[in-house]
Amino acid sequence: MSPEFQILIINATCLAIGYFGIYPALARKSLVAVGLGDLVVSGVALGTAGALFWGAGAEFRLIGLSVNWFVFALTTLIAMGLPLFLWFARRHGLGPGDDK
Questions:
Q1: Spatial distance between the Cα atoms of 66 and 79, rounded to a whole number of angstroms
Q2: What is the C-alpha to C-alpha distance for residues 5 and 60, in angstroms, rounded to an integer?
Q3: CA–CA separation, 93 vs 78, rounded Å?
Q4: With left for phi above 0 and alpha for psi between -120 and 50, is residue 96 left, alpha or beta?
Q5: CA distance 48 to 11
Q6: SS3 of residue 89 by DSSP
Q7: Are 98 and 33 in contact (CB under 8 A)?
Q8: What is the DSSP string of 23-77?
Q9: pLDDT digits (tens), the chain, 100 positions
Q10: Angle of helix 31-53 relative to helix 3-17, nearest 10 degrees?
Q11: pTM of the predicted structure, to 2 decimals
Q12: What CA–CA distance (Å, rounded) separates 44 from 10?
C-alpha cells in the first residue's frame, strides 16, 4: 500500500469517527464544540501519520509536487474535512451565534 493511500485511510477513518460517531452524539452541538472536536480529530490523524512517517524519508506526491508527510496529511485532511464540516453544519443548523 502506498504511503499516500495510508495517510488517506488514516484521515478518512478519523473524520468518519468524528462526523458520524462523536459529533452527532454531542448533547449541545455548536460550531465551537465541533471546532474543538476537529482539533482533537486532526491531532489524532496527524499524530498517527507522524508515528508512521516521521523520519522515514518517504516521498509524497500532491498535485505533481513532492511534499513531506506533514504537508500531505494536513492538506488532504483539510480537503476531506471541509465538505464534511459544511454538510454537518448545514444539517444541524450550526452557524454564527449558535452558542448563545
A1: 18
A2: 10
A3: 21
A4: beta
A5: 9
A6: helix
A7: no
A8: GGG-SS--HHHHHHHHHHHHHHHHHHHHHHHTTT---EEETTEEE-HHHHHHHHH
A9: 889 999 999 999 999 999 999 999 988 888 989 999 999 999 999 999 999 999 888 889 988 889 989 999 999 999 999 999 999 999 998 877 666 5
A10: 150
A11: 0.87
A12: 9
Residues making up the chain, counted from first to last: 100
* Domain residue ranges of the chain, discontinuous segments joined by +: 3-91
CA–CA separation, 97 vs 74, rounded Å?
28
Closest CA to 80 of 23, 30, 19: 19
The C-alpha cell that represents 88 in the structure block: 454537518
Which three three-digit cell numbers place residue 9?
485511510
